Amino acid sequence: MAEGEWQPKILAIICNWCSYAGADLAGSARIQYPPDVRAIRVMCTGRVDPLFIMKAFADGADGVLVSGCHFGDCHYIAGNYKCAKRMFLMKSVLKDLGIEDNRLRMTFVSASEGAKWAKVIEDVVKTVKDLGPSPLNQLQQ
Ligand code: FES
Asked: Which stretches make up the F420-non-reducing hydrogenase iron-sulfur subunit D domain (predicted)?
């Protein structure tokens, strides 16, 4: 990272059973990935209230990643399906607010996919860096 280079603020809301374990595996395997993401662990992506996402953007996030178990693997049966539906709606709400919808991403990373976790983070960081600061952050300056 060059000095003075803009660093995005990205929030990852990740499920305890799959994506958190995948992120942990990436760490234990010493797989390198960008440090621009701050993670919050929830028990299931079904717990992710759309207000969490709105608050993240309102509080300065440039991007939000929600990551959970693959379909069929949710420990609470259908939490990830419910979350996927909400993410679809949230993208439309964000667009209406002038926030590019690809600032919000949902992915599915299992406990054994540490390398995939690193790739997801690289891709999310690149996408958000290419977009630049969130329009909400630009308004607040
Ligand atoms: S327990 Fe992981 S998404 Fe539901």
From this structure: 10-132
Helix (H) or strand (E) segment spanning residue 93? helix 79-96
Q: Is 67 in the pocket of ligand 1 (CB under 6 A)?
A: no
Residue 39 burial (CB count, 10 A): 15
* d(CA 45, ligand 1 centre) in Å: 5
Q: Where are the domains of the chain?
A: 10-136
Burial label for 115, CB within 10 Å (0-12, 13-18, 19+), is middle
CATH topology of domain 10-136: Rossmann fold (3.40.50)
Q: How do residues 27-49 score in pLDDT, each as one tens digit? A: 999 999 999 899 999 999 999 99
